[in-house]
Write a structure and sequence with these properties.
Helix 1 (11-22) links the parallel strand 1 and strand 2. The chain is globular, with a radius of gyration of 17 Å. It starts with a strand and ends in an 18-residue tail after the last helix. The protein is built from eight helices and four strands. The protein has helices at 11-22, 39-44, 63-73, 84-119, 126-149, 160-174, 184-194, 200-203; strands spanning 2-6, 27-31, 52-55, 58-61. The chain has 221 residues and is an alpha+beta fold.
Length: 221
Amino acid sequence: MARLYHVPLSPFCRKVRLSLAEKKIEVELIEERYWEQDPDFLRRNPAAKVPVLRLDGKILTESAAICEYIEETRPEPALMPSDPDTRVEVRRLVGWFDDKFHNEVTSKLLYERVNKKVTGEGYPDSKNVKAGAKAIKYHLDYMAWLLDHRRWLAGDKMTLADFAAAAHLSSLDYISDVDWNRSAIVKDWYAKIKSRPAFRSILADQISGFRPPVHYADLDF
């Protein structure tokens, strides 16, 4: 069985978990306190980051590379389109959420409010929290614009771009940092994607010291 070393609220780990679940790959989830710099974990990934996936006798690191490997070795059901134009759009959007959205929103909200507490790094920086709360509005509006022109974020079919976005938003939703009333079309998109069987284990996550919002596990919210 595959083994994933992860942190439950990490959007990068969640993206990999969603890819594995969509492909129906059974995986053992092992929570990794990467910040403690455990020697065994550092041997698996000297970069001391999660996710780390053991699959096919290999140790895979970096979420983008992991998802590409999963897609190339288990092509069905496809999470990457067959045509080059849409493939490059999927990769652009995955980069958008894992880079721009992460730096402007996730790191300012989730990392300040949750990661600092969990790792003992201190209290949230209010300036960062305010910046993240402002930036997420722009990103939700951009998603609304994309979804106004497409069925899914990158085109007519659900792709890894949707999983990347959902991974970040579901982590933020756990701490009630997403205003779903800002855009009906984004809210509908999220309701569709989180109703998929692949999302079940994500919705079951419970983080010690942090209670999920009432609607978090409600597929009909």
